Amino acid sequence: MLFGLFRRRPSEGEHKTYYEIVAQARQPVFYTDYRVPDTIDGRFDLIIVHAVVLFRRLAGESKKVSEFSQSVFDLFFQDMDASLREMGVTDTRVPKKVKAMGEAFYGRADAYAPCLANGDVEGLSDALSRNIYTDAPDPVAERALAHYMMAAAGALAAQDTAELMSGKLDWPDPAAFAPEEDAPLGRNDGQEQ
């Protein structure tokens, strides 16, 4: 997918789909109950989580669907490019940072997609631990996020492709899969109950 940037003007459905990914990834519950770090990296990782679920759902469809997925992917990286520039990253450093983000996306997609395909919650939890919870491993939150991703994959699988391409993504409610408030924090505070 990387880097087909700036090929053509994206359609309204492509824009809506990308904005739906971002809106879902910004749900406050992910940063409170799921304890995803509320940082640039944490937010980037949650966009990847949702993008991977969608792109996996659309994989193997028609050429038109493949072009749609590529365009949504391109919008993602155009947005990352613009965000870096807004944060003051110099013009000479932006391409290197975007390239690193692309590599991060593909690495995470390679880790998450097989687990989603095989219903491997444990493997997905481990991958989330390595990528999102690196500074503060949290098995309870990792497992909850893995269950949420499985539910999201199931919800998008049940939707018609045309509906997805119009920007109507039926994400599950993340609060329904969130860890209990009194669940132990971190690996050293106890195991899942």
TrEMBL record:
**Region described as Disordered:** 168-193
Q: In this protein, which residues make up the domain named Ubiquinol-cytochrome c chaperone?
A: 33-171
Source organism, top-level taxon: Bacteria
Pfam families cross-referenced by the UniProt entry? Ubiq_cyt_C_chap
The similarity annotation says: Belongs to the CBP3 family. Belongs to the UPF0174 family.
What is this protein's record name? Answer: Ubiquinol-cytochrome C chaperone
Supply the source organism for this entry. Roseibium aggregatum
